[in-house]
Amino acid sequence: GCWAELIAKLSDISYWFYLNRTKHKKAVTFYLMRYLSGDTANHDHEVDEARWFDIGAAKRVLKYVNEKRLVDLALDYLDAEPAAFGDLPIVARTAEQLTS
Hints:
Low-confidence stretches: 92-100
Helix content: 25-40%
Largest sheet: 2 strands, antiparallel
Strand content: 35-45%
Number of strands: 2
């Protein structure tokens, strides 16, 4: 897995799913974090795949509106609190910025 520094809580998302014909509710809390070290390939059995994306690509790859909203929340936080991430490189925020 990866080690990260917790910066801020972004949001909670809950959803329902079926496992062995039983309906389950799952709640997930999302946080904005600063990567410190580690490898995304080292993850547990609950994760099929973990990859890094720049912000523009992440919004294109994410399937659900509530997940895309998390990217917007992270950007809003970065705009309001730029010092929280120190001197990280500037990343493209939209698909248009990725191609220009």
